[in-house]
Amino acid sequence: MSFYSRAARMLVAGLVLCFGMAGATASFADENAVVTGKIEWGVWIDDDGCMHWWADGGLEGYMVPRRNPKTGKPVCLKKNTCLVENTDTLFATDSHKLTASGRDRLRKFFSSAGAFGYAIYGHTDSRASDEYNMALSKRRAHSVAEVARSVGASVERELGFGERQPIASNQTVAGMAKNRRVEIICYRW
Which of 187, 115, 123 is nearest to 151 (CA)? Predict the structure, then answer.
């Protein structure tokens, strides 16, 4: 009797599956179906210059390393610091709005640099609070990134470091001037 009961359950399950698939096929074939989602995709470059494929449909995305199909090794770009610009030449004091000459200089740079992608890092001296300097350096990096995007350059990251990565002493006027900078990293083949 258990054999027949198991066979009956399998038969019912098979029928449910068949009718379910038929209904699903009919709904997929509906000519009035509305697409409600969009999948965004692209290539992301990590801080080391290695490329990753990514896709995101809105609920959950995924990322996989881009690998050379012949060798299986990750595809990585060469990176170098291609411009360090003192922010005194790009911005007024305590501002993230680019000067006209600073905007022109950056436009020319991004139009001619020829890199695959860019990372833009903003830095400040230590005259204001850490919180204020972090926000100002982020806004300045974003302003530079917007110029890059305006000429078709791909900006992979824009970060503000505030006063946290000084390259000179903040105890002198000359040292503070060196620390107020925007660094642009170029990713190249």
Answer: 115
Question: What is the domain extent for residue 133?
Answer: 78-188
pTM for this predicted structure = 0.75
Same domain assignment for residues 93 and 177: yes
- Residue 163 sits at φ, ψ, to 5 deg, of -95, 10
Verify that 172 and 151 share a domain, yes or no: yes
Domain count, the chain: 2
- Per-residue pLDDT of 99-146, as tens digits, reads 999 999 999 999 999 999 999 999 999 999 999 999 999 999 999 999
Determine whether 106 is exposed, middle or buried from the number of CB atoms within 10 Å of its CB (0-12, 13-18, 19+).
buried
Look up residue 63 and give its amino acid. Answer: M
Question: Tokens 């198991």 — which residue?
Answer: 6
HSE-CB of 133 using CA atoms within 13 angstroms:
18
- Identify the CATH number of the domain in which residue 172 sits: 3.30.1330.60
Q: How far apart are CA 127 and CA 37, in angstroms?
A: 48
Do both 173 and 100 map to the same domain? yes
Nearest alpha carbon to residue 84 among 188, 156, 182: 182
